[in-house]
Amino acid sequence: MPSSITGAQDTHSAVPRDLLDDPHFWTLPPWYHCHIQTHAGTTIFWLPIDTKEGRVYARLTTDAARLPYIITHSTEIRHSTIPEGLYFYDEPANTRYCIRRHTAVFDGLLRLGRPDGGMLWPEGSPQWEAVAQYYRDFGENLGPIHVYRGRC
Questions:
Q1: What is the pLDDT of residues 22-33, one digit of tens each?
Q2: Beta carbons of 82 and 40 less than 8 angstroms apart
Q3: Residue 86 and residue 142: Cα distance in Å, rounded?
């Protein structure tokens, strides 16, 4: 799920301090991706798999280690100032969904979150499936993922 680096921070040297949710990491060859959402928007970092940096990244075992590495070594960075919300990328359906903050639907989404306030359940778990279905039922359909990635 589901943001730009804010202030005077250099996007290649600092981990954002105002994360709205846990960073989301995924692999879509030929790239590794990290999706970060903050109050200022969204940032997606892209790191080519078939590079020295990509091979180092592949050996990192924790998100805490992956985040600063991908920020520091990304070859492409996409920034967006889309209104605050939480996003879900339904890869099999090639569809993006958004639930905007400060709405009743958003409050309902939060009730499906983890006890610590995070939204990212283990993929495939019943809780993850419930969150995914909530996005499909109540989220704003933003269209195909590949169109979004291609025009950022």
A1: 888 988 889 999
A2: no
A3: 12
